[in-house]
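We emphasize that the prediction below concerns an isolated chain of 173 residues; any contacts that depend on oligomerization or on bound cofactors are therefore not represented. The input was used exactly as deposited, without trimming of termini.
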Amino acid sequence: VEVDWRAVESDPTLPVTGRLLGASDQHDMASAAALLTSDEDLPWLPPELVPKTQAAVAGYAEAYGVGVGPDVRRVLFAAYWTDGADIGNPEVLRTRLVGPMLRGRSAVDPVRMFGLAVSGNRGPITTQAWRRIAAWRAEWAALGRRDLPVVIDDDGSLAAGEDALRLLEKQFA
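Result of the prediction step, given as a token string:
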């Protein structure tokens, strides 16, 4: 199954420091765990906070553009769900993303030479990544959905939230 992953900041109103994990977030995590198949395991450490994901989206958009999106997606997942790291902090991301970014194909010096994926103000490094983020945000807004993940099948049908996870389960079975 070929998947074209996108990243969007689902709650841009979060403060820069994020917010503490609440009861509804813990319910969402329990619901996701209930959808696991018998051979799946979620290796997560319950995070302490819900981060402002602007920096993570910027890092992924840069990685997507230089051909290392899958690597950075896995790094971001592990950083948050396994290590409990604040992936909204650009300094946390700079150290974790530098390796994959240096393996990417970029003509832009800060990315190519130093592996930068996120600016100090939580934004992308390149104009191309900024445009990519804007396009992803517009596509997501056009769907009119707020629950994640969202899956659009080859036939254009849309599934979101738990329905999307069930669709993916069928696709990968």
